[in-house]
Give the backbone structure.
Amino acid sequence: MIVANSLKNVLVNVEEKLANAEEKKIEYDAYTEIKSENDQLGFNDFYKKGLVEYEQQNYQLALAEFNHAIDIDKSNSDAYIYRGDVKEKLEDYQGAIDDYNQAIKLDATHPKAYYRRGNVLRKVGDNWGAIADYNQAIRLNPNYTSAKHRSYVRVDTGTTEKFMQE
Protein backbone atom coordinates (compact mmCIF):
# COMPACT_ATOMS: atom_id res chain seq x y z
CA MET A 1 0.00 0.00 0.00
CA ILE A 2 2.84 2.45 0.80
CA VAL A 3 4.47 1.67 -2.55
CA ALA A 4 1.15 2.22 -4.34
CA ASN A 5 0.64 5.61 -2.64
CA SER A 6 4.22 6.64 -3.48
CA LEU A 7 3.75 5.65 -7.10
CA LYS A 8 0.44 7.50 -7.17
CA ASN A 9 2.15 10.66 -5.81
CA VAL A 10 4.93 10.33 -8.39
CA LEU A 11 2.36 10.00 -11.19
CA VAL A 12 0.43 13.05 -9.94
CA ASN A 13 3.68 15.06 -9.81
CA VAL A 14 4.63 13.94 -13.32
CA GLU A 15 1.16 14.82 -14.65
CA GLU A 16 1.34 18.28 -13.03
CA LYS A 17 4.80 18.89 -14.52
CA LEU A 18 3.59 17.78 -17.95
CA ALA A 19 0.55 20.08 -17.68
CA ASN A 20 2.79 23.00 -16.65
CA ALA A 21 5.21 22.22 -19.47
CA GLU A 22 2.34 22.09 -21.98
CA GLU A 23 0.98 25.40 -20.63
CA LYS A 24 4.43 27.00 -20.93
CA LYS A 25 4.79 25.63 -24.47
CA ILE A 26 1.44 27.17 -25.46
CA GLU A 27 2.50 30.52 -23.94
CA TYR A 28 5.84 30.30 -25.74
CA ASP A 29 4.16 29.42 -29.04
CA ALA A 30 1.77 32.38 -28.68
CA TYR A 31 4.69 34.70 -27.87
CA THR A 32 6.67 33.38 -30.85
CA GLU A 33 3.68 33.87 -33.15
CA ILE A 34 3.17 37.47 -31.99
CA LYS A 35 6.89 38.18 -32.27
CA SER A 36 7.08 36.79 -35.81
CA GLU A 37 3.99 38.82 -36.78
CA ASN A 38 5.68 41.96 -35.43
CA ASP A 39 8.88 41.09 -37.28
CA GLN A 40 6.87 41.00 -40.50
CA LEU A 41 5.22 44.35 -39.84
CA GLY A 42 6.77 47.35 -41.48
CA PHE A 43 7.08 51.04 -40.76
CA ASN A 44 3.63 51.87 -42.17
CA ASP A 45 1.94 49.24 -40.02
CA PHE A 46 3.33 50.65 -36.77
CA TYR A 47 2.91 54.25 -37.93
CA LYS A 48 -0.78 53.72 -38.77
CA LYS A 49 -1.38 51.84 -35.52
CA GLY A 50 0.24 54.76 -33.70
CA LEU A 51 -2.11 57.21 -35.37
CA VAL A 52 -5.13 55.09 -34.43
CA GLU A 53 -4.01 54.80 -30.80
CA TYR A 54 -3.34 58.55 -30.69
CA GLU A 55 -6.81 59.34 -32.04
CA GLN A 56 -8.30 57.05 -29.39
CA GLN A 57 -6.22 58.85 -26.73
CA ASN A 58 -4.30 55.68 -25.88
CA TYR A 59 -1.10 57.66 -25.59
CA GLN A 60 1.13 54.98 -24.06
CA LEU A 61 0.16 52.54 -26.81
CA ALA A 62 0.62 55.23 -29.45
CA LEU A 63 4.07 55.97 -28.08
CA ALA A 64 5.03 52.29 -28.33
CA GLU A 65 3.79 52.09 -31.93
CA PHE A 66 5.66 55.24 -32.99
CA ASN A 67 8.78 53.93 -31.24
CA HIS A 68 8.54 50.73 -33.32
CA ALA A 69 8.00 52.75 -36.50
CA ILE A 70 11.02 54.95 -35.79
CA ASP A 71 13.14 51.90 -34.98
CA ILE A 72 12.39 50.68 -38.51
CA ASP A 73 12.77 54.04 -40.31
CA LYS A 74 14.65 56.79 -38.54
CA SER A 75 14.35 59.12 -41.55
CA ASN A 76 10.59 59.80 -41.44
CA SER A 77 9.97 63.28 -40.05
CA ASP A 78 6.21 62.71 -39.64
CA ALA A 79 6.83 59.83 -37.23
CA TYR A 80 8.91 62.13 -35.04
CA ILE A 81 6.24 64.84 -35.21
CA TYR A 82 3.49 62.49 -34.09
CA ARG A 83 5.67 60.91 -31.41
CA GLY A 84 6.33 64.47 -30.24
CA ASP A 85 2.58 65.05 -30.13
CA VAL A 86 2.16 61.96 -27.96
CA LYS A 87 4.93 63.08 -25.63
CA GLU A 88 3.30 66.49 -25.34
CA LYS A 89 0.03 64.82 -24.29
CA LEU A 90 2.01 62.80 -21.73
CA GLU A 91 3.54 66.09 -20.51
CA ASP A 92 7.05 65.01 -21.52
CA TYR A 93 7.73 68.45 -22.96
CA GLN A 94 11.48 68.04 -23.37
CA GLY A 95 10.93 64.71 -25.12
CA ALA A 96 8.41 66.39 -27.44
CA ILE A 97 10.83 69.23 -28.22
CA ASP A 98 13.58 66.68 -28.94
CA ASP A 99 11.30 64.84 -31.39
CA TYR A 100 10.28 68.08 -33.13
CA ASN A 101 13.96 69.05 -33.34
CA GLN A 102 14.71 65.70 -34.99
CA ALA A 103 11.82 66.18 -37.44
CA ILE A 104 13.20 69.63 -38.33
CA LYS A 105 16.69 68.18 -38.71
CA LEU A 106 15.27 65.63 -41.19
CA ASP A 107 13.06 68.13 -43.03
CA ALA A 108 13.63 71.81 -42.31
CA THR A 109 10.77 72.73 -44.68
CA HIS A 110 8.04 71.07 -42.63
CA PRO A 111 5.86 73.87 -41.17
CA LYS A 112 3.98 71.48 -38.90
CA ALA A 113 7.18 70.64 -36.99
CA TYR A 114 7.85 74.31 -36.25
CA TYR A 115 4.25 74.98 -35.30
CA ARG A 116 4.04 72.02 -32.93
CA ARG A 117 7.40 72.83 -31.36
CA GLY A 118 6.18 76.41 -30.95
CA ASN A 119 3.14 75.14 -29.04
CA VAL A 120 5.34 73.22 -26.61
CA LEU A 121 7.79 76.09 -26.22
CA ARG A 122 4.86 78.31 -25.31
CA LYS A 123 3.74 75.77 -22.70
CA VAL A 124 7.16 75.76 -21.08
CA GLY A 125 7.32 79.55 -21.05
CA ASP A 126 9.66 80.19 -23.98
CA ASN A 127 7.35 82.66 -25.67
CA TRP A 128 10.02 84.18 -27.93
CA GLY A 129 11.01 80.71 -29.09
CA ALA A 130 7.34 79.95 -29.75
CA ILE A 131 6.90 83.13 -31.79
CA ALA A 132 10.06 82.36 -33.79
CA ASP A 133 8.71 78.89 -34.59
CA TYR A 134 5.27 80.23 -35.53
CA ASN A 135 6.97 82.80 -37.80
CA GLN A 136 9.03 80.07 -39.46
CA ALA A 137 5.92 77.93 -40.01
CA ILE A 138 4.25 80.91 -41.73
CA ARG A 139 7.38 81.63 -43.80
CA LEU A 140 7.33 78.05 -45.03
CA ASN A 141 3.60 78.11 -45.71
CA PRO A 142 1.95 81.54 -45.71
CA ASN A 143 -1.46 79.85 -45.65
CA TYR A 144 -0.67 77.95 -42.46
CA THR A 145 -3.46 79.56 -40.49
CA SER A 146 -2.88 77.62 -37.29
CA ALA A 147 0.45 79.36 -36.77
CA LYS A 148 -1.13 82.77 -37.21
CA HIS A 149 -2.44 82.64 -33.64
CA ARG A 150 1.07 83.66 -32.60
CA SER A 151 -0.41 87.06 -31.74
CA TYR A 152 -1.98 85.42 -28.68
CA VAL A 153 1.42 84.68 -27.18
CA ARG A 154 2.17 87.05 -24.34
CA VAL A 155 5.60 88.58 -24.39
CA ASP A 156 7.59 90.84 -22.13
CA THR A 157 6.56 94.38 -23.05
CA GLY A 158 10.11 95.57 -22.48
CA THR A 159 11.22 93.72 -25.59
CA THR A 160 8.30 94.58 -27.87
CA GLU A 161 10.67 96.36 -30.27
CA LYS A 162 12.33 93.02 -31.00
CA PHE A 163 8.96 91.49 -31.78
CA MET A 164 8.00 94.41 -34.07
CA GLN A 165 11.24 94.00 -36.05
CA GLU A 166 10.38 90.40 -36.83
Notes: Residues 157-166 have pLDDT under 50 and may be disordered.
